[in-house]
Amino acid sequence: MNITNVDSELLGKTRQNMRFAYYTNMILIILYVILSIGCSDTVSDSLNYKKPDILFIYTDDQAIYSIEHIEDVMPSLFEAVINEAEEYTNYICSSPYCAPSRASLLSGKFPHNHKHYNNSKKYSDFYQIFKDKSLGILMQQAGYHTIFAGKYFNPGFPNDVSRTHIPEGWDEFLGMKGGKYLGTPWILKQEGRIINRRSPDDEHRSFIEVKYLEEKIDDFKKLNIDKPLFVYYAPFEPHHPQRGESKNKWFPEEYNAKFKKLRLSDHNNTKLDHSQHRYRLRALNHLDDNLKRLFKKFKEYGIYEGSYILFTSDNGFKLNHYGISDKRSSYEEDINLPFYIKHPNSKNKSHKNDKLIGTIDLLPTFLDLAHFEYSGCNGVSIFSSSDRKYILSEMINEGQFKDENWWALRGRDDKIVKYQSGKIEHYNIKSIPEEQLELDYKSIKDKLLILDYLITCESMCIY
After folding, report:
1. What CATH number corresponds to the domain at position 221?
2. Is 93 helix (H, G, I), strand (E, B) or coil?
3. 423 assigned to some structural domain
4. Nearest to 304 by CA among 52, 50, 48
5. Within 10 A of 356 (CB to CB), how many other CB atoms are there?
6. Distance of alpha carbon 137 from alpha carbon 120, whole angstroms
7. What would the DSSP string read from start to end of 386-448?
């Protein structure tokens, strides 16, 4: 991975500053290890701390603009989570692409450290490195009963390892294989056996997934297992449907008739894809009907009030914003995502939090809630005292795309993007659409040093 310096003369003059920044960060890292990674005092100081039940919902390609009409599009989610939650407005994905983002979630590391840069990489390569230190197994070690349903990884899962592969760490597991809503193959654990099945062409995957979660929560309660519950649900919605699905019957007619008048907000671009936006809203509306059953199950067993419920997505998506319909860019529509946390008994309800957080912080956050010590992450718990000034998002295209690799330093007010060629862009993210600023190397030289530090950082990457 070749990273070209922006201005060798400029950076050469600031070597002393770099050394100072490096050693300063080493001191900060030690302090953060002491204060944050142990996780034993960031959520509760009580010696009789009771580990909470946790529900984590991780959608696919859900951009920040999707929440504009969320009360109408996802009323069940709005009532059970969003209306009861703390909203984080600066949640930044580690990479705006499916595989590297999910790998960052499972490992707590940036793509340049977990090495699963894009969908061209083998799932088995990631699995061999992280099979004994990823999300599920760490939560089991923390004392949780773990249940997973949905999209676990990307192309290659599970056959890169074996046809009957179930990743370690999950007491109950249903993993969908491939990227379709209808007729999707899946693999699950059932009474000690590994079963491969293909869903019917008229049964959407989220219906199957939530039905499975309902059954496994029932089993967990009936067996009176003396453990807290960690449920990770990764639905496919609102990901774009396969061509055949959209031409045939992507969703039942009652969904296809909805939201006909909803449009994307003005973006100084009259060619935004409003039609695709409505497709995605209908997908989320269909998902919401299934989530309603899941929330009802939590309430039925009396675990809703005392649980943490976290809701976010793997990355965003542009619908001809800036003339592009895709992800993988450093624009806010791709990297800044919806993020909500419902605390037990709706503590911090309706509070907006501008703390800079990201994908690399999710694993430390779950382990913090579990009061479990683990020092293998690049991020820290969202509930820690850490208040970073900048966070990194990166897209490494090597092996799959010919586009340039890029690295973005995201602050609260601005963003600097560095490309592999050495090109630099500076953005004001407070404007809509975001405004590219005239480049002034003198004013941003310190930020460039911070960016260079983060894109090579291997341990705790906080600045």
Report:
1. 3.40.720.10
2. coil
3. no
4. 52
5. 19
6. 25
7. ---S-EEEEE--TTT--SPPEEEEE-SSEEEEEETTS-EEEEETTSSSPEEEPP-HHHHHHHH
Whether residue 322 has pLDDT greater than 60: yes
Provide long-range contacts, Cβ within 8 A and 24+ apart, for 38-47: 38/373, 39/364, 39/367, 39/368, 39/370, 39/371, 39/372, 39/373, 39/374, 39/381, 39/384, 40/371, 40/373, 42/368, 42/381, 42/383, 42/384, 42/385, 43/368, 43/369, 43/371, 43/381, 43/383, 44/371
Decide if 404 is inside a domain: no
3-state percent breakdown (helix, strand, coil) of the chain, nearest 5: 35, 20, 45
Q: Is 307 within 8 Å of 300 (Cβ atoms)?
A: no
* Backbone φ and ψ of 128, nearest 5°: -65, -30
1: in domain: no
Place of tokens 């939090």: 353
Encoded tokens for 282: 């209908």
| pLDDT average, residue stretch 45-52 | 76
What whole-number distance in Å separates Cα of residue 175 and Cα of residue 177?
A: 6
Six-digit token string for 13 = 């003059």
Spell out where 78-170 has E strands.
86-92, 145-150
Residue with tokens 């960052």, as numbered in its chain = 104
Contact between residue 422 and residue 4 where contact means Cβ atoms under 8 Å apart: yes
Q: How many angstroms separate the CA atoms of 318 and 211, rounded?
A: 31
The candidate with the shortest Cα–Cα distance to 120, out of 462, 396, 459, is 396
Range of the domain at 295: 50-384
Total domains in the chain come to 1
For residue 75, say if its preceding peptide bond is cis, omega within 30 degrees of 0.
no
Tokens (6 digits) for 184? 């999707």
The position carrying tokens 């490494």 is 396
Write the burial class of residue 450 (CB in 10 Å: 0-12 exposed, 13-18 middle, 19+ buried).
Answer: buried
Please indicate, yes or no, if residue 414 is contained in any of the structural domains: no
| Residue indicated by tokens 């939590």 | 298
- Convert the pLDDT of each residue in 248-301 to its tens digit: 667 778 888 899 999 998 887 779 999 999 989 999 999 999 999 999 999 999
- Cα 396 to Cα 112: distance, rounded to the nearest angstrom: 8
Q: The pTM is what?
A: 0.91
